[in-house]
Every structure is written in structure tokens, then in C-alpha cells.
Amino acid sequence: MSEIALNSTTTFQNRLTQWLFNPFMFVAGLPALSAGLAIILISGFFCWLGNTHFDGVIDCHIGLATQWWIFPAEGLINWILLAIPLFFFGLIISKSSFRLIDVFGTQALARGPYLITAVVMLPSANLKVGNFIFAKLTQTTPVVAVNLADIFIFAVAMLLGILMAVWMVVLMYRAYSISCNVKGPKAIVTFIIALIGTEIISKFAVVWLLSNMR
Amino acid sequence: MKILPTTCPACNEQLKVKSLICENCSTEIQGSYDLPPLGQLSIDDQLFLLDFIKVSGSLKDMAGLLKLSYPTIRNRLDEIIEHIKITESSRQNKREKNK
Q: Where exactly are the structural domains of chain A?
């Protein structure tokens, strides 16, 4: 392979890596907000089809059937509840001036991996195996029998679900780092505080939504 | 075109101008001169600032030109501003020491 061809391959790989793990280098503001909102709403549609709940910033559970609008509402709650503290942490620790739309837009786009999660949770095998495991753990009689194919589908969905959660957290941090121009220990610590705090608050918010609105 | 080096290849310290020459009459001036603040930046940063001036200092236009996001451009500019501030303050400290 010639040097030029090798360089172009390396550049392509670098660009692909940046698009996968740091797309905010190339997109932020209104385009990111539009794409992110579309992703949240489409994810909500798939969640409604599969009864998948994003009941927390990084949480994903399946089972409870409810009204269609609850599913996109969960995604919107998770997005807004994380973007707000990150914006305020940015105001405190960043030396730069930054735009609100970049923080909210990039955080919305960072939820992209959960669109894949919403799709991989669609097969009914996931719910079957989930119920089976729950019944075994609580030592009640399993409602339905599961076969090897169900277990395989469930295992793949769980593996992909974990990978998507890790990918989403990486994207959320990158979004925070670029949109507020923060890096280093201060950025990492404030991000972790915001993520844990929001995880707790969003959990309560979604539970309240499910118990009062459905 | 040759690229003007701004830092020492051996120890990475800022280089100084030792001599200047008139190509017309070959008059040569020797001394120890600091590079101007913008000349002390890396070539990449200098080219970035050149593009920035060409788009009339618009971060949005710059983002479009380089196909990068607005905050990426703003962060890069902030880094350059920070670099210039550090260079200026270290130069001022040296002057005060020499007094």
C-alpha cells in the first residue's frame, strides 16, 4: 500500500473514531438539538413497541405496558435533567463563555446509542427470559418456558445494552467537555456528580410520571 | 516555502531572532529580538488565526469553513488566547527581572 493510501486510510479511521466517540467536534448547536430530539422521539416509539422504559438517565427496563406518550417523555426527562446541572457546572468551572443550545443539543445527541438499545429490546424473548429469571430469583413458578433461542437473544440484547450504556456515557462526557470547554479532574468529577445526582432524580421523576399519569 | 521554526528542536524553548538581513543592500543587523506574539504561535495556530481574520472573526463562518462545530472552534480560539496571555505574562516577568 502506498504511503498516500495508508495516510488516507488512517485519516478515515481517525475521522470514523471521532464521529463515533466525539461527534460534537463536527456537530453541535441547533443541528445537534434537532437530531437529538428526533433520536429521543424515535427511541420513544420503539420503546412503546417493546414496552422498554428508560426509567433513569442510564437505566433501561422492560415490561410495563402504558400509554404511548410516556415512553418519549421518559427520554425527554432524562435528557433535560442531565443537561441542566451540566450547564450550571459549566458556568462554575469553565473559563470560556459557552452557549446553552450547545449543552442541550449535544446532550440530546449523546442519547443516540439508546436508539439502538430500544431496537435490540424489541424481541419478546427479552421479556420472556426477564420474567423467567425474576420468577427463579423470587422462587415463584415461571410463567412461561424459555428455549435456547430466547436465551441467546436475551444475552445478545444484554451485551449490546451494556455496550450502548457505556458508549452513551462516553458521549455525554464528551458533549459536556466540548460544549462547556472543560477538561481534566474538575470536569470528570462534576460530570460524575451530575450523572449520579440526575440518575436519582430522574428515577423519582419517571416513577412519579408512571404512577400519576398513566 | 520554508516554515519559520518558533521553538527549539532540542529543548522546546521559544526561539529568538538573532539576525535580520536586507536582501537589497545586504545590511545585516545582529541582536536578540523576541518574535512577535503571533509569530510565537505554532504554524497550525497561525494558519487558524489567518482563516479567522479572513472570515471577519465570525466563529460560525469559521466552523463552516473548517467543517467543525461552533464550540470546537471557540475552544480552539480560547486555547490560542490562553497561550498568548501566558507568553505575554512570561515576557513581562522577564522584563521585570532584567530591571
A: 28-213
